[in-house]
Every structure is written in structure tokens, then in C-alpha cells.
């Protein structure tokens, strides 16, 4: 298994290009695009604190197939030890506002990552405590 970062830091311009590309693909449906892509200036990628992971077993794709890989299983069991947490969990889309992204992890620090993982929290829920 080879786990690697497919995307990490993005500039405003890169995020703008991505977001506008999604808008074009989805025929201007802003409400839909906003469920899976942050608007420029609002992306966690622009903070440098998140990573989209992938693996060779899915051809380096950044999509839902990642959930069925050994790499995802390893991250699920170990990411918190390194200060990372799954940012957009499957059962928390109503809280995060984003669709499930098994590949998207955010660095929150080891102590916070342990608590988020232990209690099954999103970053939003943790910050609201």
C-alpha cells in the first residue's frame, strides 16, 4: 500500500479555478457545488492544514473509492495519532455542510484529534463545546 497526498495547500487562484470548473460542470448549480467544494477564500486547503489522500490501488483518484482501500482503513485507525482527523464524515453531512469525503483529513493537533476520534465529533462539534 502506498498512501500519498493528492492535494494539500492550494492558493486562492487554484481554488477559484477548481470551484469555477465545478460550477461549469454542474451547470451553475451553486447549491450543489457548495456541498463538495469550498468557495475561493473559504477552502481549508488555503490554510495548509488539510490533505486529500489517495493510493495507487485506485489510480491516485480522489473520490469515494478511497473508502474501500487499505489506506483508508489505516488512516481510520491511525490518523489521530499524528494529529489528523477525518474532516467530513459520512454521518455528519448535516453538521459540516459538505458531502462525505473519506480522503479529506485536517490537521488539528494530536490532543484535539484524539478527542474528536474518541467521541466521534466533527471539528464543528468540537469547537462548539
Helices and strands in order:
Elements lengths: L2 E5 L4 H14 L4 H4 L16 E6 L14 H9 L5 E5 L4 H4 L4 E7 L2 H10 L3 H6 L1
Antiparallel strand pairs: 1-2, 2-4, 3-4
What does the model show?
By secondary structure, the protein is α+β, with helices and mostly antiparallel strands. About 35% of the residues lie in helices and about 20% in strands. It has a 4-stranded antiparallel beta sheet with strand order 1-2-4-3. The model has no long low-confidence stretch (mean pLDDT about 95).
Q: How do the strands line up in the largest sheet? A: 1-2-4-3
Q: Any low-confidence stretches, pLDDT <50, length ≥5?
A: none
Tally of helical segments: 6
Distance N to C terminus: 37 Å
Order of helices and strands: EHHEHEHEHH
Give the oligomeric state of the chains in this entry, treating copies of one chain as homo and distinct chains as hetero: single chain
Radius of gyration: 15 Å
Average pLDDT value?
A: 97
Can you tell me the overall shape? globular
Largest sheet: 4 strands, antiparallel
Count the E strands.
Answer: 4
Query: Structural class of the helices, strands and pairings?
Result: alpha+beta
Strand content: 15-25%
State the helicity in percent bands.
25-40%
Describe the structure concisely:
With 129 residues, this protein is of the alpha+beta class. The protein is 36% helix and 18% strand. The protein is built from 6 helices and 4 strands; from the N terminus they run E-H-H-E-H-E-H-E-H-H.
List keywords for this structure.
129 residues; alpha+beta; 4 strands; globular
